[in-house]
Amino acid sequence: MKQTAQAIISDNILQLLDFSNFFDFAKSLEEILTTPVDLIQVQRLIISGSKIDSFAFLNLFPSLQQLSFLACESDKWSDLKGNGNIISLRLHNLKQKKKYLSSIGFVLTFPNLEYLYINMLGLNNFSELRGLKNLHTIFAQCRNGNDIKAQFDFSALEYIPKLKVLSVWMAVDRHRIPAESLIPVLSNPSVSHVDVTQMHTTEEKKLKKLMEKINPKLLETPLSDDDLQIINKQHFAW
Description:
alpha/beta, Leucine-rich repeat, LRR (right-handed beta-alpha superhelix), seven-stranded parallel beta sheet, two-stranded antiparallel ribbon, 4 helices, 11 strands, membrane, transmembrane helix
């Protein structure tokens, strides 16, 4: 039996969930349009497990501030256009032609993006983020599922002018993030917090030494796990 989207409406929040059949997105959207919710006022939107043939539907949500795409598939990602109201974007394991998406250039169409949550298995660098002048917080899972031997490249983060928080983790324990690969981030004068969650304690010790050498202020007022969790809950559509 085909499943269509479930509309959860609370405090002016509409979440589109349960698109378990990739081919039901257009039909599900039509059904959402028949609900009494005022789409013009919707500020948070989640799209999960969907095959998306067109992103024109985003024009229905001019007040949207927080947008999440979770395990979605599309051949039209390059057509995705954001708007100036969206300040938070959450991207989780997106695919194109059955492969993990290796480019997120569409983020540059979100000129006022401040918060970015990336759990993407197709990326190997953050070069496409350099044009985001207002981005200040990044949560990221950093492993290239298309080439698991390649090290993730953080060098572009040195040049994001307002970046303050970087919190990264590894999805697979046997992979590691070398502390040296984070030197560009530590060298960004606007950064005030960097943390890495992985099984390799040696890298954690090396990272602390690099902080002491390059940017000691990072050791003075680090955000706690609770602080990071609050940011996650408040500023991303879950």
